[in-house]
Amino acid sequence: xxxxxxxxxxxxxxxxxxxxxxxxxxxxxxxxxxxxxxxxxxxxxxxxxxxxxxxxxxxxxxxxxxxxxxxxxxxxxxxxxxxxxxxxxxxxxxxxxxxxxxxxxxxxxxxxxxxxxxxxxxxxxxxxxxxxxxxxxxxxxxxxxxxxxxxxxxxxxxxxxxxxxxxxxxxxxxxxxxxxxxxxxxxxxxxxxxxxxxxxxxxxxxxxxxxxxxxxxxxxxxxxxxxxxxxxxxxxxxxxxxxxxxxxxxxxxxxxxxxxxxxxxxxxxxxxxxxxxxxxxxxxxxxxxxxxxxxxxxxxxxxxxxxxxxxxxxxxxxxxxxxxxxxxxxxxxxxxx
Length: 337
What we know:
The chain is α+β, with helices and mostly antiparallel strands and 337 residues long. It has two domains: 15-216, Jelly Rolls; 233-336, Homeodomain-like (Arc Repressor Mutant, subunit A). It contains 13 helices and 13 strands. It has helices at 25-30, 131-140, 144-152, 164-178, 182-187, 191-210, 222-236, 244-251, 255-266, 270-291, 298-304, 310-321, 325-336, and strands at 15-22, 36-41, 49-56, 59-66, 70-75, 80-89, 93-95, 98-100, 105-109, 113-117, 122-130, 157-160, 214-216. Helix 2 (131-140) packs antiparallel against helix 3 (144-152) and helix 7 (222-236) packs across helix 9 (255-266). The N and C termini lie far apart (49 Å).
């Protein structure tokens, strides 16, 4: 019997290939269909992002390229696991206060994706798959140990190093999949092509999971815990931005210790981090007001986040995002028309 094109497998599970580009981190976060992400830009310069998203019902392959370092956190879709395999990176990532060496694979529970500081230039493939589906397919392959591993590890994060040759083979395989473009869009309209692609991906994941070279990266370093407390405090006191001295008193450490915590956990100084956090908050608020068609007072929003010196604020904003705040507002307004 001839194979026929199909459009869906499960209710609400769209099958297809989508390619999108974005020019700021907030827009980039919203491009992940069905995910709930918060993304802040860390490094300075105009942002450019691109996503190639291949959805096969309970499996999704996303190739993401970004031009600036980001802090990403949030969640994928319910009861999913997310494998992240970097294809190219300009420097190390940081996760839970620890550096992640290239090209190690990060496995996270999709229900809770902890903050990840990405490299400045990054090309990465993320594979999101429903946990029960992956467990079932691994059992079918006879990979009982791997199936038990993914079934039991909930709200946990692991890093897989593997052999250089094995990771290189994985990188090549996923590049080949994502580079198919329009040809893949047509092919996965057929059930047999879908099944074949899913088998290829699950076989690759089985290779990762069968390796013994993995380590638990759940534990947050003491330095990262202090950074997290600082972030919560700054956001809670947006109307009265704290000074470095205030932050030192709040967490009970010296200025030098605070600097060491930020350097070890994020590779930033406290001042750099605080400025980045507040500028991203301003950008997010300006975008939200413009998208909702509400009046936008850039000065009021900036002052609310502690920026009282107008020219210094606009220059800091331009340095981080590669555009003036007024350009951000105009860009969002024009996109909303």
